[in-house]
């Protein structure tokens, strides 16, 4: 174990929000200033804890609305001695719009977001026409949005909204990133359902 990293792991990895109308002070959230990556709807953080372990030179925030799941991020991250991982319990779009400082993230990861398969519920989908604009404001220059889903209809919507944006270009997902599976992905793949994935990089 890296003792130096273990020493700087706080008692809780969950960020206590003093205010939900002021943006996070990232210098107070992390001890080391490093490029930041954010996973929206991180679930039990199976992906994020492993990816943060593999990338100690980057900081990671998992955003999740369910308490039981974000508590798993905390437990997994502390057990692994991850000084570069934090969790925020809040709604994903709100986090992007109001809490993350502008142009702060090198990458956004959105994996297996709730598909809302019924037509009348599709307005609840996180990746909609407004999302590329939210992502653009959150990303640093050259930042990337990584997407995965099992749902072909939602995948069509994802590729359509990003394909329509002049500000993003489609890129390949790096193999070493694709190799780190999420919890839901492992279950879907085990049932024979393949992962649909896409990545989009900011042009500026
Ligand atoms: C289908 S699960 C996928 C979890 C994880 N990304 C994975 O692939 O294993 C979707 C997760 O997103 C969370 N979630 C759904 N909508 C959300 C929202 N608007 N804001 C924050 N979390 C959300 C759910 O609570 C759930 O944990």
Keywords:
alpha/beta, 35% helix, globular, 204 residues, 7 strands, 7-stranded mixed beta sheet, disordered N terminus, binds S-adenosylmethionine
Describe, in plain words, how this protein is organized in 3D.
By secondary structure, the protein is of the alpha/beta class. The chain is 35% helix and 22% strand. The protein has nine helices and seven strands, in the order ααβαβαβαβαβαβααβ. It has helices spanning 3-7, 26-29, 46-54, 67-79, 92-99, 131-138, 152-163, 175-178, 183-190, and strands at residues 36-40, 59-64, 85-89, 105-111, 139-149, 168-171, 196-202. Strands 3-2-1-4-5-7-6 form a seven-stranded mixed sheet, sandwiched between helices. Helix 3 links the parallel strand 1 and strand 2 (59-64). The longest helix is centred in the middle third of the chain and has 13 residues, at 67-79. The N and C termini lie far apart (39 Å). 35% of the residues are buried. Residues 3-7 have low confidence and may be disordered. Bound molecules: S-adenosylmethionine.
